[in-house]
Design a protein that fits this description.
The protein is an alpha+beta fold. 30% of the residues lie in helices and 28% in strands.
Length: 261
């Protein structure tokens, strides 16, 4: 009896293995447990948490190795659903992104042009139904065209980042000090702040997203903050429109000569 059960189990595993092979699926990719795509997600969008817990879903791949994928994660730029800023965690950012290429060590993408995003309830489950209920097929097709989908790879247009499980060469205790330095620039009392590193440039300067609420539990709009290699605050700029922060971020980087390494 036990022998028959074992044989059936082995047979089922063999069938699943054959299906995976014939479909050309990488189990790590199909299952969403892909560190390279996770890295692209946290390096692409300002204000995204790198604490873990994000969801990934591969949607499509082209013949040159590009990957179209959906990404859901906590974002400090999300609007709270209640009067208390802790409700910021009730909403997640959801995005569709394009990764140009990756291996075990690095991942390449087109900075600023590789994603479209929106928000969704933190309790929602990431699947294709959710993705296509939020993003239209024309929006996704436009994203693919912007990222040269179906064309030969162009490495000169990519930024390449190290595949990592945490962001961005910043130690947690240093991040806390950086948040305190930003607090000191705020007029009035800060009850709580949220700070998320975006990336470090070739000179070691760290670009961060910062947001705070005051003693009346009023959550204020976010800031783009630049710190030098030693963690000292260089400058901070309030985000004028959360819906168009991508353009403001690009202008900020240009003004201060910041380039993702």
């Amino acid at each position: 009896m036990k022998t028959n059960i074992i044989r059936k189990a082995l047979g089922l595993l063999l069938v699943l293995s054959l299906v995976t092979t014939l479909c050309g699926c990488d189990p790590a990719i199909a299952g969403g447990n892909n560190k390279a795509l996770r890295t692209v997600g946290i390096y692409s969008m300002l204000g995204v948490s790198d604490a873990g817990g994000e969801e990934l879903l591969t949607l499509e791949q082209d013949e040159y190795g590009r990957t179209l994928f959906a990404y859901k994660n906590t974002s400090f730029s999300s609007e709270p659903t209640g009067s208390d800023s802790t409700d910021i965690y009730n909403n997640d950012i959801i995005a569709v992104l394009v990764c140009q290429s990756y291996d075990d060590k690095t991942a390449g993408f087109y900075e600023h042009d590789n994603y479209i995003f929106s928000t969704t309830a933190a309790s929602s489950v990431l699947d294709e139904d959710l993705v296509y209920s939020i993003f239209s097929e024309s929006d996704i097709e436009s994203l693919k065209q912007t990222n040269d989908w179906g064309k030969e790879l162009q490495p000169e247009k990519m930024v390449s980042v190290e595949v990592t499980s945490t962001v961005k060469d910043i130690k947690p205790n240093n991040l806390g000090k950086m948040g305190d330095a930003a607090d000191a620039q705020i007029e009035g009392d800060v009850r709580k702040h949220f700070i998320s590193p975006y990336a470090v440039d070739t000179e070691g300067r760290c670009l961060c997203y910062y947001r705070y609420d005051d003693i009346d539990c009023c959550l204020h709009e976010g800031y783009i903050v630049l710190f030098d290699e030693g963690g000292a605050l260089v400058t901070m700029e309030e985000i004028t429109s959360p819906d168009s922060f991508r353009e403001q971020l690009m202008a900020f980087e240009l003004e201060y000569g910041w380039h993702m390494k």
